[in-house]
Amino acid sequence: MNINDYILNEIKALSLKNTVKEAKNLFDNFPITHFPVIENNKLLGSFAEDDIHTIENKKVELVSFNHLLNSFFADEKATVLELLKIFADNDTNIIPVLNKEKEYIGYYDLCDVLDVFSTSPFMIEDSETLIIEKIENDYSMSEVAQIVESNGGKLLGIYISERKDHFIQVTLKIITEDINEVMHTFRRYDYKIISTHENDIYLEDLKNRSDYLQKYLEM
User: Fold this and answer.
1) If you average pLDDT over every residue of the chain, what do you get?
2) Are 62 and 17 in contact (CB under 8 A)?
3) Which among 115, 90, 2, 96 has a CA at the least distance from the CA of 41?
4) Which of 60, 127, 151, 169 is the most exposed place for a label (fewest CB within 10 A)?
5) 204/198 Cα distance (integer angstroms)
6) What is the spatial distance between Cα 35 and Cα 127, in angstroms, rounded to a whole number?
């Protein structure tokens, strides 16, 4: 699926010669957080809805407020993950898109990009989601892949989902017939299993030992 197929032009970019009233009308008619401003097909930046609605004089041209322009965009070769980062970093639901000549060619809508991501094999493939934790300095992506593959599994995707106090948590999407074997190997390599899984033999064994100890103490 080509993400470029989702570049939109439904909302026409404004120029600095447009008035505040025209900008407010744009926000009133479309559920967007920002709108791009261009001049001679070059992106000048994007105005935020919150900033525009604080301006009382509706007759003033936007050029008087160009200091409020936000500078963010994506090039036409950006990946879905890169787009999601731009959306998050700028708290926006649209991203202006530039071609290789740095000309404005349209924008991406957050809902469309999320739909593309949610229908990717990474998300929809029948697989196990495993979250592991280890000291950051001891973490090795190649080791993680080796552990999964040595147990007959296939690693669909991997990303660092949390970093805190010198520890990192890594989320894995794995195709495997025996998640217990994979988890057992990770534990042998001093990884902590964060996610919960049905029929986790290790946890079941700990629970049984705990129950036995509790019964012994109560005797």
Assistant:
1) 88
2) yes
3) 96
4) 60
5) 10
6) 39
Closest CA to 169 of 160, 177, 178: 160
DSSP string, 93-162: SEEEEE-TT--EEEEEEHHHHHHHHHTSHHHHSS-EEEEEEEEGGG--HHHHHHHHHHTT-EEEEEEEEE
Q: What sign does the dihedral 194-178-186-166 (CA atoms) show?
A: negative
**What percent helix, strand, coil does the chain show, rounded to 5?**
40, 30, 30
In tens, the pLDDT along 168-177 reads 999 999 999 8
Residue 81: predicted pLDDT: 87
Q: Phi and psi for 174 in degrees, rounded to 5?
A: -130, 135
Amino acid at 143: E
Q: What is the pLDDT of residue 207?
A: 47
Cut 0.90: pTM above it: no
Identify the pLDDT of residue 97.
97
